[in-house]
């Protein structure tokens, strides 16, 4: 204790200062020459922060500065430990109850709360000069930088001039203080002030080096993938870290592409999810971070995201109803699908040996349908489809479409009549044939006009009319007198509409009996 007191007196005497390290009454003061402050990193808690009241690091000799040690999230510790090093290199360490230390002497101060690493140091100056430039201990970008040009004594200055890095920054005879709103790192430098008194006395202050601190470094954009497959999801994050002293600063984030496309406006989420990314989404991506008060805003560098497209492959065509078996008059759907392939795909449907496509669709899909609302017999044939997602069309295999005639009451009747009915018709036909053959009402002309069944010319008005004689085999070379004709005759069943007569030949196949008549 004696040694401690002696050293304190010596300290005060050497410093030429009347100030003493005057903590709370319960203080346990230790002089710890050569004791190094524990290195940070081995502690669980973040560093505490010292705040100053008044906020200036330079005061006049004889004034008091209260240093307050604040734990994480401004938690107020019950006990604090203080480290002080004076400008002769002497160090001391003491623990106090509470967290405020009243200081009257210069030096470097750090504090520590239970279990935390020591704080960053605060340098305090107690000036004997007539004019001082006062600046806060720590200034972050975005903060307003307050500077005070302060004269000792009661008489005030009439005008001031602030010098920054050797240049006049500000001159005034009204406000003696200087405030620089939204300070940036650029505002760091050497500051001093010149004061003018009424009697035209010029006073010069000390020079203060002010370093504006970075609130958070330039953000970095990160993505879960920079060459994602088209159709996959990509998550973007905007990464930075706040200065430990300002961990509770609220931030907003934005994400954009190619400098113009805003993907997400200012928002409190540092992550952006792109559930499905398309090739069209390729580009340069960036993000921005700003404080909620807009005091600081920073943008990341742009990073390229290049979305990879999977070319189409294994194109296939299926039909509904399946197997290419269409029913006349009903809907046929041609479904074109690809096993692989992403993004916009152009599907197109073709009929074999036909130049023009039947239909075309561009969709962000692996399948597309073409509907033929009422298929006709003439539609029968080979069909295929192609798919193209910008690498050139890929063909499917050819599917043969057959068109079955619509099942109707005619066939039902025939079904009902069964073999017996069919036999009767054949019998009837045979009768008609033999009746004609016998010369009755048989017109031996090359083209016979159909007789009117109602004319009563024939007693067998039920016998079918002769419609036309056509060469049966078009390709057959025939000589005169050896003409081969096919006579197409239609048995119109009762109740059959006239319109049926205009049906395509395929329909007639079922209801007509075709036989050949060879004339010699
Ligand atoms: C410093 O703290 C003491 C009490 O701890 C208080 O009386 C005094 O007003 C404080 N000074 C300043 C400048 O805050
Ligand atoms: C303040 O300075 C301006 C010129 O810069 C001068 O016109 C004015 O008279 C001055 N006022 C006082 C009170 O000195
Ligand atoms: C700092 O100064 C540089 C050069 O004068 C300028 O390009 C930059 O925009 C300034 N930064 C800020 C934050 O004002
Ligand atoms: C970027 O994100 C990926 C995946 O989310 C992660 O593995 C990687 O460490 C991150 N890179 C950086 C620099 O943060
Ligand atoms: C993106 O984030 C969502 C939600 O956290 C997650 O479900 C998804 O798997 C992530 N995507 C990637 C590619 O990491
Ligand atoms: C942040 O963005 C998401 C997605 O854009 C949105 O759902 C959410 O409401 C936004 N939150 C705020 C606070 O703006
Ligand atoms: C974002 O903002 C919303 C609404 O303002 C809030 O509920 C949410 O807690 C915020 N999230 C973060 C991470 O700040």
UniProtKB/TrEMBL annotation:
Transmembrane segments: 413-433
Superkingdom of the source species: Eukaryota
Membrane topology: Single-pass type I membrane protein
Record's subcellular location: Cell membrane
Classification via SUPFAM superfamilies: Immunoglobulin
Signal peptide range: 1-19
Keywords in alphabetical order: Cell membrane, Disulfide bond, Glycoprotein, Immunoglobulin domain, Membrane, Receptor, Repeat, Signal, Transmembrane, Transmembrane helix
Keyword Transport set for record: no
Assigned GO CC terms: external side of plasma membrane
Listed Pfam families: Ig_3 (PF13927)
Gene Ontology MF terms: transmembrane signaling receptor activity
Major location (coarse): membrane
Presence of the UniProt keyword Ubl conjugation in the record: no
Example of a GO biological process term: cell surface receptor signaling pathway
InterPro entries in the record: Ig-like_dom, Ig-like_dom_sf, Ig-like_fold, Ig_Fc_receptor, Ig_sub, Ig_sub2
Domain Ig-like: 48-123, 128-193, 219-297, 311-402
The protein's name in its UniProt record: Fc receptor-like protein 4
